[in-house]
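Work Package 3 (structural annotation) set out to generate three-dimensional models for the target panel prioritized at the project kickoff. During this period the team completed the workflow that converts sequence records into discrete structure tokens, so that structures can be stored uniformly alongside our sequence database. As a representative example, we reproduce one entry of 236 residues exactly as it appears in the project archive.
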Amino acid sequence: MTKYKRILLKLSGEALMGSRQYGIDPERLAEYAKDIKEITDLGVEVAIVIGGGNIFRGVAGAMHGMDRVQGDHMGMLATVINGLALQNALEDAGVKTRLQTAIKINEVAEPFIRRKAMSHLNKGRVVIFGGGTGNPYFTTDSAAVLRAIEIEADVILKGTRVDGIYNDDPEKNADAIKFDHITFDDVLRQGLKVMDTTAFTLSQENKLPIIVFDMNKKGNLLKVVSGENIGTKVNL
């Protein structure tokens, strides 16, 4: 038995780099695919939103003089590339998938249609959402929360390289304290970084819990969906 029936898994583009400095690490992709298959085999319905920071980040382009809207469109395309790579890895692992995008690229992916996404999930297919929200100035964090609400997910699982939320950067401060559970209000009050403000507020308003956990540790995804106390849970 699992605690959650339908989840939205948010992965950063940087997570796909593995030990590389940029691009996609096939070994890391294969590891993620095995972990995801493990929970789909138990009947968990999985939707995924993935970032594009391992290829291109629109904000970074804007900082170097690029038009922000143009840069964000490039970033959206980067998420589609990552989505295609993850789709291939999942299908190699024996998982049925669909890739839907917020921008129309009919030759490589379905356009995002809520009813079709819900139908795919009901049939046990993993649905990968690419292209962010389809709009500039919105992050893939915002896309993750928006899609989670639209597909009526039980929880957002934010897979990162750290094992939860701390009161300080644990990579810089060895004395940083980890939270097992924290409320939305406490996150805002303490100025902790979980998601960008737009995404976080949207999650709070829709009473959608967020769990931040270390996706790179094998077995953690299964433990989270099984209800084990892994990472940090943010809710009301």
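The mean pLDDT is 94.
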